[in-house]
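Aim 2, interim progress: modelling of the fe (ii) ion-bound target.
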Amino acid sequence: MGHGGNVIEELKADHREVEDMFDKINALPPGDARRREIADDFTIELVRHSVAEEMYLYPAVRARVAGGEAMADKEITDHATVERLLKELEGRDADHSQFDTLVARVISEVAAHVADEEARLFPALAAACTPAELDELGDKIRSAKAKAPTRPHPAAPDTPPMNKLLAPGAGLVDRARDLLTGRGRS
Ligand SMILES: [Fe+2]
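Predicted structure of the complex, ligand included:
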């Protein structure tokens, strides 16, 4: 979802949005089917956020921030860990024996990633770029995220590629990533 503002404001708003989804899933009792729907929501949101960061944020960090290469490498490793967990989670119903454990692991990995980005990476980028550059990166991040819808369930259009993404379950992470990166499009 586009929030407006420079790259740091935009990405922090994404972080708060995902944290709200985590609060919602934690507020529901174990086995509640709505926990699966919220897991689909945060899966798509996390992939959108990761792809947008990989396309625009980390290249800027590598180019502009002292020590930026190592910072970007670490964040990309974090994303890969989260995506591995999301792939284990996709297609598992809320009453699956591993569902709650996987959700808890996603939440703790994402919390660590968010804390690290906000404490180290964003301040370093803000110090290395002009306000205009940060605004321009914000616009690029918003346009990258706009290639995939936020919510998988309501009012899903019937036409490809939307219907392929919006079908929940196995393959959701790859479908979201393909749609956002244009991978697999001929
Ligand atoms: Fe992030």
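The two ends are 26 Å apart (CA to CA). The chain has a mean pLDDT of 88.
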